[in-house]
Design goal:
It contains no helices and nine strands. By secondary structure, the protein is mainly beta. A five-stranded mixed β-sheet has the order 2-9-8-4-5, with no helix packed on it. A four-stranded antiparallel β-sheet has the order 1-3-7-6, with no helix packed on it.
Length: 89
């Protein structure tokens, strides 16, 4: 993952992440994390170079990192170098 657009949003907003190797064959799930709580997001669209997802209702406000779960034989959680700010309600 390289970039997030927009860089902040409210619960229910759709966010687009761009990068490389983001297709379903490699990325099974996407999370928002504050390094203590990992919140799974609803992916609405996924291609080789982008993932669109909704900010979940239970996402905590603040600056959160994106994290993926790989589809490897032994799945790995990998925190990405991009962050998203979830605005308070």
């Amino acid at each position: 993952m390289i970039s997030v657009d927009p860089q902040n949003g409210k619960k229910g907003d759709v966010i687009t992440v761009t990068g490389e190797n983001l297709q379903k064959a490699l990325v099974s799930k996407v999370y928002l994390t504050d390094e203590k709580i990992d919140t799974i997001v609803e992916v609405t669209e996924q291609t080789d170079t982008s993932i669109k997802f909704k900010i979940p209702a239970k996402a905590a406000p603040g600056r959160l990192a994106l994290m993926i779960l790989t589809t490897e034989k032994v799945p790995k959680l990998i925190e990405q170098p991009v962050k998203l700010t979830v605005d308070p309600d």
